[in-house]
Amino acid sequence: MFAREGYLIIAIAAVISLVLVVVAWQLNPFLQVVLLLLAAFVLLFTLYFFRDPHRVPPEEASDLILSPADGKVVVVDENVNEPLFLKGPAKQISIFLSPLNVHVNRVPADGVIEHTNYVPGEYLVAWHPKASEKNERSELGLRHPSGARILFKQIAGAVARRIVFHLNEGDTVKAGERFGIVKFGSRMDVLMPLDAEIAVEVGEKVTAGLTVLARLPETPSLAPADTATQAVAR
What we know:
This protein is of the alpha+beta class. The chain is built from 4 helices and 14 strands. The protein has 2 domains: 4-49; 64-218, Glucose Permease (Domain IIA), CATH 2.70.70.10.
């Protein structure tokens, strides 16, 4: 199975490979081998990059935050400031995706999408400390049924130049559902409440829709914005 976002690129790669094969047969044996190998590499690498394996999330995922991407955990920070959606202190997990990882992204938790935003930006290497703030990215905010807020970001790296997501405000989503892709190397950030229990560490390899990043408490503490809303209501 292949990611739908890659269909056009796969078709272009197939045409390029076909042209290389046709040209190869008109050359000497050595160049024939070189071009045939190049044609095979172009097509096979493109197919490999846009692979989209079938995955079944854990059965009891209602209180879990799952990895939204394949890759390696490069940041676990238990106290960051997140002013955009959580609007206060939060925990952050960042995942680096190499060009060899599956690049289809999956929703990290059950809930309703309350915030979507696309930000054009720079293309610093994905592990750069400022990549979350300066690079091209999407910013997607999810409200878990418990009331907890989760923000997840697709961040383009030095190689990636195209972020795609298929979520809109008001969408109801389930943990592990496909929602988009970042092409050719990237990073994913997941920001969650302080009372979430982190289940991974830096250097650990994770799998989208399967690996548990964190667990949410049954009665999470309110985000600052929610606390302010309740105070006004009183």
